[in-house]
Design goal:
about 25% strand; UDP-n-acetylglucosamine1-carboxyvinyl-transferase, Chain; about 35% helix; binds uridine-diphosphate-N-acetylglucosamine; alpha+beta; 4-stranded mixed β-sheet
Length: about 425
């Protein structure tokens, strides 16, 4: 068990480089199954979720190797040539939600897949009905029994699919299954997140014929086979947003490098309302925090709205803002796990259903708190940076799922943060 020990109230300053996007790399790793040839994913972050996906691919018979490019970038080589297994081991399946991404590619390559229901963050129910409906529409016969899902399809056939909700995962799963299907597929009301565009580019690099990603209709013309690809993944916009808030919350001045300013427009707009000064350049953002943030309201929405993955961090910011803020979570049912812990640090938060009302206080105070999920853990870390005294955060394994060296990067900006191993 590891924990963070943070001594707060240090202004962050300096320059920090963002890692590749977790939510782009995970479906890309799954889609290497379709290539049956070596693929290289450059700027692949070192994350526990990436490790789990790599472990699954290895157990299914692939070769996965981490390496560094000549210019010092973290990369992954995945060779699925000798893969022969289509059953995903249950313990790994339960480790993370993204294991469901393997369904489309395994079905596309082997015409068969067997897996159990995926695990993941404790942020409320996360059904997979849209994934299953989409795959059925492509001709898969799917049976759900005793906690397992068995899907089979001799030939997947292109189809017209309308998603009830623009689910990121369902859009990607359907894209991956449709690339090798016979004929054309249209996904309507598709998710428009930047990671979907990155997936389109990755798959097209393998020889797929996909267009429309980034709009609400994605069209896929099936091809007979795909090949390997070398691909640079986009920077992580949630990591970028988290560091933007870290700068704003500590009244610091931080230059965030290797980011795409357009991908964090909704965060930038809110931070400007809060009083931060933000300068956007081609691939970097400079943030100068206000002496005290102003309270503003937040409502999470699908992209390009304010991301649900930034809501817990925004809540931490509002805890020290001047005034009252209303935060509405529209994507997930219970994503306020961090609120109870923030209260231990002196925050004034009232939750009613999917709404949180935050009455800002002048100072938070250090306490021992626990991270229950990935972004909730980031929220507590930010609160610890701004708090008076020492904050101990347990459950750092959650942050390791989605941040490549959160503590290391914050320390490089002058934060007093230590990772401590606790043997229980
Ligand atoms: C992805 C991201 C996650 C982010 C989320 C929303 C990855 C690896 N994860 O998760 O970080 O928080 O998008 O931006 O990319 N839903 C259904 N049925 C389904 C699928 C989803 O009802 O079959 C619902 C969910 O319960 C949720 C909403 O749709 O309420 C959004 O989920 P979705 O966009 O699918 O999120 P994920 O792909 O799981």
């Amino acid at each position: 068990m590891e924990k963070y020990v943070i001594t707060g109230r240090r202004k962050l300053s300096g320059t920090i480089r963002m890692s590749g996007a977790k939510n782009a790399v995970l479906p890309m790793l799954a889609s290497t199954v379709l290539a049956g040839e070596p693929c290289r994913i450059i700027d692949s972050p070192r994350l526990r979720d990436v490790q789990v996906m790599s472990d699954i691919l290895s157990q299914l018979g692939s070769v996965v190797r981490r390496y560094e490019t000549d210019d010092g970038r973290k990369a992954l080589l995945v060779d699925t040539t000798s893969m022969a297994e289509y059953e995903v081991p249950e313990p790994l399946m339960r480790e993370m939600r993204s294991s469901i991404f393997l369904m489309g590619p395994l079905l596309g390559r082997f015409g068969k897949v067997r897996l159990s229901y995926p695990g993941g963050c404790a942020i409320g129910p996360r059904p997979i009905d849209l994934h299953l409906r989409g795959l059925r529409s492509l001709g898969a016969v799917i049976r759900e029994m005793h906690g397992y899902i068995l899907a089979e399809a001799r030939d997947l056939k292109g189809s017209e699919i309308h998603l009830d909700f623009p689910s990121v995962g369902a859009t990607e799963n359907i894209m991956m299954a449709a690339v090798l299907a016979t004929g054309s597929t249209a996904i309507r009301n598709a998710a428009k997140e930047p990671e979907i565009i990155d997936m389109q580019n990755f798959l097209n690099g393998m020889g797929a014929r996909i267009r429309g990603a980034g709009t609400d209709v994605i069209r896929i013309d099936g091809v007979k086979r795909l090949s390997g690809v070398d691909y640079h993944v986009i920077p992580d916009r949630i990591e970028t947003g988290t560091f933007m808030i870290a700068a704003a919350m500590t009244g610091g001045e931080v230059c965030i490098e290797n980011c795409i300013p357009e991908h964090v427009e909704s965060v930038t707009a809110k931070l400007r309302e809060v009083g931060a000064e933000i300068k956007e350049e081609k691939d970097r953002i400079l943030v100068r925090g206000p002496s005290r943030p102003r309270a503003v309201d937040f409502k999470t929405l699908p992209y390009p709205g304010f991301p649900t993955d930034m809501q817990p961090q925004a809540m931490a910011l509002m805890c020290v803002a001047d005034g009252i803020s209303v935060i509405t979570e529209t994507i997930f049912e219970s994503r306020f796990n961090q609120a109870e812990e923030l209260r231990r640090m002196g925050a004034g938060i009232k939750i009613e259903g999917r709404t949180a009302v935050v009455r800002g206080v002048e100072t938070l105070f250090g306490a021992t708190v626990e991270a229950y999920d990935l972004r909730g853990g980031a929220s507590l870390t930010l609160a610890g940076l701004a708090a008076e005294g020492i904050t101990t955060i347990e459950g750092v394994q959650h942050m390791d799922r989605g941040y490549d060296g959160l503590d290391r990067k914050l320390a490089a900006l002058g934060a007093c943060i230590e990772r401590i191993r606790e043997d229980r």
